[in-house]
Amino acid sequence: MKSLSLLPFCLLAFAAPAFGQDASSSAPADQSGPPVASADAFKIFVETCADISSGDPAAYDRAKDAGWTPNETEDTGPYNKVYSGYRDLPGLGEVDLWGAVYSLPSQRLGYCRVDFSDQNNILDFKDMAGQKGLVGSITAGANSDVYGAWESPDKKVLVIGDRTDGAVELEFNLLLGDKPKS
Q: Which of these, 40, 130, 24, lies nearest to 87 by C-alpha position?
């Protein structure tokens, strides 16, 4: 795992650390079986990110039970609750996940980012549609680059993603609503 660094986050004007193996590295993907089906991979990412970034304290245990290995996370203070972990998926290799719940003065925001290499174009971004009700669109770029944006019908889950030069980044924003009263 490489060191944490800050990534720009333009939708809501804050930054989240990126981590994990550089997707452009030549490390081989996990080949312990046939590649994970595209729809199954998106289901894993959507469900895990929605859970990790929901604010539910039991979400971390559910992630571990689902095969995610947590990284050591430093205390981030009273306004951030952070989770980071990784999981190997056949055909994709190591998938890194970083999630947080931000407690602002009047409301909470969930954020999750998934990073991995998809040099073999296993993922079909069309398979994101319908996951937990997400709707959106994708745009093809040069070579096998692809860009997408999706949201839930209630507009409380917002996702943007891309595969550029074989590296996939998916960013989830969950508008969790008013901060619970203490």
A: 40
Domain ranges within the chain, ordered by starting residue: 35-178
pLDDT digit string, tens, across residues 55-81: 998 999 999 999 999 998 778 889 999
The strand pair at 69-70 and 80-89 is best described as: antiparallel
Distance from C-alpha of 57 to C-alpha of 51, rounded to nearest angstrom: 10
Is the distance from CB of 55 to CB of 110 less than 8 angstroms?
yes
Kindly give, in sequence order, each residue whose CB lies less than 8 Å from that of residue 72, ignoring residues fewer than 6 positions away.
none
Q: List C-alpha distances in Å: 125 to 35, 65, 154, 162, 176.
A: 16, 26, 21, 9, 25
Burial class of residue 137 (count of CB atoms within 10 Å of its CB; 0-12, 13-18, 19+): exposed
